[in-house]
Write a structure and sequence with these properties.
191 residues; mainly alpha; Arc Repressor Mutant, subunit A; 7 helices; elongated
Length: 191
Amino acid sequence: MSIRHALLALLSEGPKYGLQLREEFEARTGEVWPLNVGQVYQTLQRLERDGLVESDDDAEPGPQKGFRITTTGAGELTGWLHTPPDLASPPRDELVIKILVAVHLPDVDVHDVVQTHRRYVVELMQQWTRLKEEAGNDLALTLAVDAELFRLDSVVRWLDTADGRLKRAALAPPPSSPATPQIRRRSGVRR
């Protein structure tokens, strides 16, 4: 998540203090991602260093120092908002790595590993669903919870698919050829 760009977005509405930025960030993101005030001020210092924000020159560093976005900062924000994130390469996902490693461990029941994680993810989904029901009309929280539920749902679907593949692979006869296809080292989508 880009705290840097989120702060620029908040400053695009007008000048703000660091504590105000932290409170508004948390409110706008449904309080799902709490921010440490030190993180806010550190990010503001970098933004100021990079010419993306300006501060009140006469104010001492701290809660009373106001910040405002610069023209360069507004351009940076616009660029960020209109640039899709790099989704071509899959992220390093600890769960995927666990399953891939477990497949080759002789004393590990990979199906048990899959089901343990599946149960945990389903429990998380139930917790998020309860939170969504309690959210009422809080649009930011509802949108954040929806995103998390969709993400967790995709994890459950992947675990189910992986478990099915592993079961089919266990039933399949071993390949007649000792040659193993080489996996492409470069990740991303083939074109």
